Amino acid sequence: SQTIHQWPATLVQPVGSPLSLECTVEGTSNPNLYWYRQAAGRGLQLLFYSVGIGQISSEVPQNLSASRPQDRQFILSSKKLLLSDSGFYLCAWRPFEGEFGAEAFFGQGTRLTVV
Amino acid sequence: RKEVEQDPGPFNVPEGATVAFNCTYSNSASQSFFWYRQDCRKEPKLLMSVYSSGNEDGRFTAQLNRASQYISLLIRDSKLSDSATYLCVVNLNTGGFKTIFGAGTRLFVKA
Fold first, then answer.
1. In what order do the strands lie in the sheet with A19-26?
2. CB B14 within 8 A of CB B82
3. CA-CA distance, B89 to B105, in Å (whole number)?
4. Beta bridge partners of A11
5. Residues 6+ apart with CB under 8 A from B75
6. pLDDT mean across residues, chain B
7. How far apart (Å, rounded) are the C-alpha atoms in residues B5 and A46?
8. What is the C-alpha separation between B83 and B75, in angstroms, rounded?
9. Contact yes or no for B96 and A104 at CB 8 A
10. Whole-number pLDDT of residue B52
11. Could you tell me which residues come within 8 angstroms of residue A41 by beta carbon, excluding any fewer than 6 positions away?
């Protein structure tokens, strides 16, 4: 069966510090991978998605970047965090585009507080 | 215009009530549709897929109207445990599937 791992679960970082959140998927090949952010009391905002190694699509210009160095690894990064980067970050995967009807599955999320 | 729009609510209903949520999407390239449920401070989880002919899962019924680009979720006989945020979700085929979430509709079911 497929599983998704996301860590850390919570993170408190000072303004101006770097960020690296990692997400890995097991039990599947060539998944579509996603990073979302959810501000307190708000909906999910799609940040990045990837259809393959090294292929990243950015949805919102901002202080963040993403990388996919391996098929089942997706990393969210920032060189210098802003207060506005605080939020609940969720990694998700869904099967390769050939199965367009399949739903997305989420990691447990990282609650980031920038202080 | 947002790609997926929902009434944010909150909907406050008594136990046993029937409640309906609506969702509209703007992109005609949308290919598949879902309702997710999100409990407070947790990740979203799939509630049900939405099929063109409409589908039912116990107390939950989902409908899709492609012509109007409209999706609905009906919850019958509401339970206290139904209290959550309900997210409308659309997959867009853009050469790689973008999965877009609505902002969610908050439901409170009270005794």
1. A3-7, A19-26, A73-78, A65-70
2. no
3. 12
4. A112
5. B18, B19, B20, B21, B59, B60, B82, B107
6. 92
7. 14
8. 11
9. no
10. 86
11. none
Whose tokens are 């989880």? That residue is B45
Residues of A in contact with B39 (CB under 8 A): none
Smallest Cβ distance to B103: which of A42, A88, A105? A42
Structure tokens at A107: 């990691």
Number of helical (H) and strand (E) elements in chain B, helices listed first: 0, 11
d(CA A28, CA A46): 22
Q: How far apart are CA B91 and CA B48, in angstroms?
A: 14
Confidence of residue A100 (pLDDT cuts 50, 70, 90): low
Phi, psi of B57 (to 5 degrees): -140, 95
CB B37 within 8 A of CB B21: no
CA distance B68 to B64: 9
- For position A28, what pLDDT does the model report? 87
Q: Which residues of A touch B43 (CB under 8 A)?
A: 90, 106-109
| pLDDT of the residue at A15 | 97
Q: Rounded to 10 degrees, what is the CA torsion of A71, A76, A77, A78?
A: 150
Question: What DSSP designation does A104 have?
Answer: P
Spatial distance between the Cα atoms of A74 and A54, rounded to a whole number of angstroms: 10
Distance CA A10, CA A89 (A): 10
| Chain A 62-91, residues with CB within 8 Å of chain B CB atoms | 88, 90
